[in-house]
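Researcher: I've been going back and forth with a colleague about how TonB-dependent receptor might be arranged in three dimensions. Neither of us has a model we trust, so I'd like an independent prediction. The organism is Brevundimonas subvibrioides, in case that matters for your notes. Sequence below.
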Amino acid sequence: MLSTRKYLFGTTILAGVLTLSAPAFAQSTQPAQDEESVQVEEVIVTGSRIRRDPTTAPTPLIQVTRETLLTTGQNTVIDYLATIPALSNSQVPSDTVGSLNAGGLSLPNLRSLGSGRTLTLVDGRRHVGSPQGSLAVDVDTIPRLLIESVEIVTGGASSVYGADAVSGVLNFVLRKDFEGLEIDGRWAQINDGGQDAQRISVLAGKNLFDDRLNLYAFGEYEKLDEVLSGDIDWLAEGWGLVGRDADPSATPYDGVRDAELYRDRRGLQLLRWGQVTLANNYQPSALNNPNNVPLASCNSTANFTTGSCFSVAPGQTYVFSGTTARTANFGDWVALTGTNRTVNVGGDGENPNTIFNVDSTLPQSESARFQVGANFAITPDINLYAEAKYVDETTDLATGYSFGDIYIGDLTPRTNSQQILSTSAYITQTDNAFLPTNLRDAILANRVTIYGPATATAPGAVIGTAAAPFARYSAWLVDRPQHNERQLQRYVLGLNGNAGDISIFKNVDWDIGYTYGRADNHNEENGLDIARFSYAMDAVRNSAGQIVCRVQALTAGGGTVTNRNPNVGGTMTSASPDVAQCVPLNVFGLGNQSQAALDYVHAGLQFDQKNEQHDALASVAAQLWDFWGAGPIGIALGAEYRKESTEGGGRSASLGTTYAQLNGGADFLAAEYDVNEFFGELSVPLFRDTWLGDYAELSGSYRTSDFSNFGKSDVYGVNLVYRPTEELAFKTSLNTSVRAPSLGEAYAPFTQTFLLFTDPCATANIQAVTDTTIRNNRVANCATLAAQFGLTFNFVDPTATNAYRPDYGSSVAGRNGGNPLLKPEESESFTFSTVITPNFAPNLSIVLDYYEIQIDNVIAAVSAGTAANNCVSGPTLNNNACATLTRTGVNDPVTPRDDRFLLVDFIQSSINYAKRNVRGLDFTANYRFDTDEMLGHNWGVFNYALNGSWLIEQKNFNNIDNPADFTALESTLFYPKVRLTSQLNYRPIESLTLGWTMDWQTAQDIVLPRNFIANADSRDPAYLNSGNFTRHDFSASYKVRDDLTVRAAVTNAFDAEQARWLGATLYSNFDPYGRRFSVSLNYRPW
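Model: Here is an independent structure prediction for TonB-dependent receptor. You can compare it with whatever you and your colleague have in mind.
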């Protein structure tokens, strides 16, 4: 139980008290108060279970009031909390698009250390997590109108609240004993493109039996429109850097700027339903040419699926208009850097800011939230409390498109079904019935120029030409929408009370309660059936002149064809479902696809997930004697039992044997753990009102936990409060914390995933590395790795005949999964706070909170890309990293390409190997200026709050091979060195409040200056960082009458947006949605 008590304070002390105990991040405007003492409403002091004066709260707190949450122009609770500097990297809905099964989840993230390291409580009690196998709480399931305040402990608190409070605690304090009827409604724009949100909330409460029983009921409906990337104006404009000059890695500086900022960028490498590029080649430039950049050459016509043969280029690339093809318009400028990812300015192509992002930037969501509760005074000293909550939420979002390459040529037999090269690479031939005639003619007549090697002074000479009647089709294909249905239930039942004095224990408060939570999620994903797509797109005319699938034409006379579905294998006849149901699919051009064909190639899966939580908590708090007049010793003891479980299934069952571009995999078998915990706290006042100072207190906390699967852990906290005068106070704390591995991290089954893989052993990639040591290491290590397969490549010269030129098509399939051998993370946090409430400015308070957090044994995932780089970038092969990757040493005889040394599988999992260090300083200033009191003229009351954070250091130690190696994140994107919020409220009359809020962030590095020095012409120096970002919000609240208040707000009033040179990546801390308006009303008829 979190103890409560009533206190009396004078007006001038009240501001300091509230700041000491919980500096309010957003101050609601309060009515003017008399100079006489006022009774302060009973408060809950988060951070300790011991009853105490709020001025002696042992840990730094931030407080957000209900009024602030209701008057803000932000759409959701998490959207507002994410504007608090300490919570700036919380997961807001726009961060969840593209995430499997996470659309719309709102997860707080303190200190940017991860949502799993932030403990979220409701009235001091645990809340079930929403993501599969996770304890992270979706805070938007907490009824907004029921929230009294949000109290945030910004430091480790596991010894008080248990595991997972590594970076801090969010405690949502709900309203108690509400009586009356309150209706709150809101309409708001969520993007300046016209999408909006609507919410209606109703809260009713009634006291019965002489106020011994309070009953309340809450209901809320909320709907948010979907925002697509193309709906955001600055994304739709296509801004970004475009390469203008190409430099070799050995001499990267030639005085010519490598990239310039352009609007209307286009990309022709992948289009909706395709572009076709004829096989072509590049002439090697003279070695003394400052723009000499080694490019892979097209040396072979036998392996016609070699990626280096299909560089997107003017005259070689075709797009579609209706059912005909034409050469692509490359606009006003073509990037000089890159081949398969060429960018042009104007002309044809997709906007990379929208097509390469996931299609949705905010999911469409519809939510209904209900909660009922009761408080019943059984006796004056015993109270029964109960609550029940049910939330139903549906989200829909587009997660991008399926993608693929189709190689067109006549180098494979026409007597069988065509091979499937990978999950996103296929083959068809020039007899494809949908292939436009002019494009077929161009492919058949195509020739490539063969060049010799470049010399020191001359480009590669033309040796001759060779017939190259083949091309590559590249496309974004079918949509991949995702649908989620979530239900969350939570039930609380308990007793609390005051037992008076028991022996040496005075004023004994006790609480015993049980909480049950359950979160269910039903997910539906849609994508592409790989095998059926390969059959449908390979369309021909049969003997009757009808367009059919090739597999139908070949089996019509009783023949058989190879079943290209690796999950089935064997052969197929005309009666096989995949043949009999096949509908020819015209892939050449957007809009040419029949619905029947799209239905045939559609694949879908659905699955269900469940989290359950049982939590029983008992605590007692009391006071001992006052030995030396400093105040009574406080003590709290308690025990807690908690059980977490999760399970999920349906992926495998719904997919069956379908070979799909979807994230299939095994079911999540039921997994669980339980933990028994005992805890205690002790606070010892050292002195009060002596020559040593006004007050001092030493307090400590301890918790021992026994996890059924991870064993025992012990954590502690030590706190010291020293107030030399009523104007100045110091607080310091040292806390240890743990985070147990989540069930998802430990037991998640291996599921299929896809990776756009950049091979660190590709010769061209090695030579593009600017660090000489890493480049030389990769040459040696890749050669060693290749030798293990009996292979030899030239890893130095990209133009050499035997250079390693991997062709992965569009992606590589691999697996993600859990690790049951994980151990708990361990952390230590230190804070030191200074609180100033000067008498010369009685309404001014200043708080400075310094913090340090170090987390060891951090559970971190090692991506396949990172593992591949770590495998070959060190002085020798990193065998641990290499072991997670599978390469092939053979060339598949049925695949018309060179497969040798390609990555064919990978495992991505988490291990205890990383470390996190973070240091910073939070600062808060609050000032109230009453013109009547200060100037003698009643011109209104001003309330000002300044809240900010200075991020001194944020280091991630993620190199498994070199634990001392770290990445410094401070001042990089998402991690501003300084972020602050300035809030000014003005109340000219009692019924009107006007507000102005400014969110300001320092510039964040895109390219580190030390890297820019090595290539000082890479871009305009102004584009090295994001530039400072400022957003202004304005609000107004008018009390029409006692029972009706109207509010209005404009968010991002001056339409601030992120730096245009950031391109396609959406950084939510910069507010991507432009100027938007909201109006709301609050009605209390009784």
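Researcher: What would you highlight for our discussion?
Model: I'd start with this: Residues 772-787 form the longest helix (16 residues). After that, consider the following. Confidence is low (pLDDT under 50) at residues 1-44.
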